[in-house]
Specification:
By secondary structure, the protein is α/β, with parallel strands linked by helices. The protein contains 9 helices and 7 strands, in the order αααββααβααβαββαβ.
Length: 233
């Protein structure tokens, strides 16, 4: 053990992506961090969609989401999609650090009002047994530590199995989630941030936000790592 500790002190941990340069930020080297596909364009204040000018996108003006604001600093592109898939399906837990690090930076940079608590998109017990971990809760733990905001991991429960959202059309995503979630406590007057890995149509976040607000939450923000380029909610 002493020899291993000495080796780690002499040789800093390597980047999780290139395996070449020493770790600089949240498990990545400086070059790999800077090469992440950050969304540089202005983003919709409601749904985080990339825009040409600051403001609220046309879709959100016509059909505002149930959640009050969204943060999604990265585009769902290489290597972010590979990192999220490795965490989600192959349990490469180390990727949760850079994913959460990007989210923490975005919250701080955008000067978001700090919520009272964090929660994460839940899974059914059957799905959790099959996959082995809930990646959203795992990411949320790192975000909670980074920002000093308590995580209520058991706040939400998924009470029925649903079809995989990615396999459905945008039209069918919302109905697929009807009555799929429950909140386990009252949230009267509380401000809650919901943690998820990917923001696509926002259907899951909308449904959970309904549940949280029905339980008394006065504000629900959505914090995700990456935003897809899909144009429909």
């Amino acid at each position: 053990m002493a020899g291993r500790a000495a080796l780690q002190w002499i040789t800093p941990p390597c980047c999780l992506l290139c395996y070449d340069q020493p770790e600089s930020r949240s498990g990545l080297c400086r070059d790999c961090w800077q090469k992440l596909p950050f969304i540089r364009d202005p983003q919709c204040l409601s749904c985080a969609r990339a825009l040409t000018h600051p403001g609220i996108c046309g879709q959100c003006q016509q059909r505002p989401p149930v959640y009050d604001s969204a943060i999604a600093p990265l585009a769902y592109d290489n290597p972010v999609n590979e990192m999220l898939c490795a965490l989600k399906y192959r349990q490469h837990l180390s990727f949760a650090r850079p994913i959460a690090g990007v989210m923490v930076d975005a919250v701080v940079t955008q000067r978001q009002k700090r919520p009272d608590m964090l929660c994460a998109v839940p899974m059914t017990s059957r799905a959790l047994r099959k996959r082995g971990l809930n990646q959203s809760i795992f990411i949320a733990r790192f975000v909670s530590r980074g920002l000093g905001i308590p995580l209520c991991a058991a706040l939400l429960k998924k009470i029925r199995h649903t079809d995989q959202q990615s396999a459905l059309s945008a039209k069918n995503r919302q109905s697929n989630l009807d009555n799929a979630f429950a909140c386990r406590r009252r949230l009267d007057g509380r401000h809650v941030a919901l943690i998820d890995d990917i923001l696509t149509t926002g259907a899951t976040a909308n449904e959970i936000s309904k549940i949280l607000k029905a339980a008394g939450a006065v504000r629900v923000d959505l914090w995700a790592c990456a935003r897809t380029a899909r144009s429909s909610r």
